[in-house]
Amino acid sequence: MMHQRRGSVVLYALMMIAAMIFLVQGLIKGVFLNNRFTSSMLAREQAELLAYSGIQLAIAQLSLTDDTEADAKESSGADKNAKPDEGKKMKAMLKRVLPHLNRWQTCKLNKKTDQVDGTIKFCISSEQGKLNINEVFDFSNMSFKKPFAEFIRGLDIKPTLKKGEVHDRLVEFFKKRKKRLYDVSELLMVPGLQTLDIFYNPPSIPGKGKSSMPNVNVTLLDVFTVWTDNDKINPFWFSDSWCGMLNLRRAHADDAEKQKEAFKKVIEQIKPETKPDWDQQWQIVEPLYGQKPKIISSLKDNFTKEFGSTVYSVLSCGKVEEVECQLLAILKEQAVTEKTAKPKDNTQNETKTEPGGQAKKMLKILRIYWL
């Protein structure tokens, strides 16, 4: 009997030890998973904030800073109350933006100085380098407007749609829809277009010892837009997909360094106050896109006669640890009129804003897409 009791005690002890090991293992696993989940969620929150920060960096590049205005006034010899030279302001903006147009810009952050270890990447494109699908289609007659009908018939989107198919399928789609698009993504319902990627992906940055390569495909939101105010395209701000469709030189990730002199030459040639004829003055953008293709002459009536852009898209990516958050924002330049008046009572330090003052241009976020 004593031997049986001893055996049962040993068995009971082993069962208790096994249960304790099981419980401890579960506790350790739960703590580990909880810590990992908390760390992942924290990294995601930080990555989202960095993605938003990329939009603000793009706005800073596209906006005219106080330093730019001060330099413009100083170089023009004007007094402090004079209006800065608009041409100098635009050229200053182009020096920041043009070498990186349709390309990634990367900012690496350090926890010691920036409170977080992470990366911000953002890419600026112009919506005026794309075709406004709502403006070129006549919804009263259910057909494309005359200047654009032949143009769209000549489009081919490789490898899915040949010449003529883009036009016919879009007409058929709009006849059924009978109203304007609210968003370009609705074109995914058009047979053939659903095979395209919807969002633009800038050319990848090459590794050490490797040559940069341009994109070979086109993307839906890089071909069409609904955010511009007219039916024209600005060749100075061609999107990467339009460069591909027109057989122009496409963006490379390292162009800001390797094509530095080309960008400098282009900016020196432009005169913002003039109205360029792109068919006759293609040499202005030739360092960027290469020799003028024959199709440019037939498209000359579809081009704007200006250098500036007022509507942009910004692709921004924030990365913390292994977590990435990416978004696309549509920005539009709007004029804000304000006038700051000094208070009559000298004891007050506040100022007030009155209507009728000088107009300032600001970029407003119209829409954000989370990718």
* Average pLDDT over all residues: 81
Radius of gyration equals: 29 Å
Order of helices and strands: HHHEHEEHEEHHHEHHHHHEEE
Biggest pleated-sheet summary: 5 strands, antiparallel
Termini gap = 73 Å
Number of DSSP helical runs:
13
Give the strand order of the largest sheet, numbering strands 1, 2, ... along the chain.
1-2-7-8-9
Tell me the overall shape.
globular
Structure class: alpha+beta
Number of strands: 9
- Uncertain runs with pLDDT below 50, 5 residues or more? 66-83, 346-354
Percent range for helical residues? 25-40%
Strand content: 15-25%
Describe the overall structure.
- With 371 residues, this protein is of the alpha+beta class.
- Among the domains are: 64-100, no CATH class; 125-302, no CATH class.
- 39% of the residues lie in helices and 19% in strands.
- The protein has 13 helices and nine strands.
- A five-stranded antiparallel sheet has the order 1-2-7-8-9.
- Residues 66-83 and 346-354 have low confidence and may be disordered.
Features:
single chain; 371 residues; alpha+beta; five-stranded antiparallel sheet; two-stranded parallel ribbon; 13 helices; 39% helix; 19% strand
Give a quick rundown of the structure.
This protein is α+β, with helices and mostly antiparallel strands.
How are the elements arranged and paired?
Layout: H1 2-62, H2 66-76, H3 86-97, E1 104-109, H4 111-114, E2 118-126, E3 131-132, H5 133-136, E4 137-138, E5 143-144, H6 146-153, H7 165-177, H8 220-223, E6 224-225, H9 240-245, H10 255-258, H11 260-269, H12 286-289, H13 295-298, E7 311-320, E8 323-341, E9 352-370
Parallel strand pairs: 3-6
Antiparallel strand pairs: 1-2, 2-7, 4-5, 7-8, 8-9
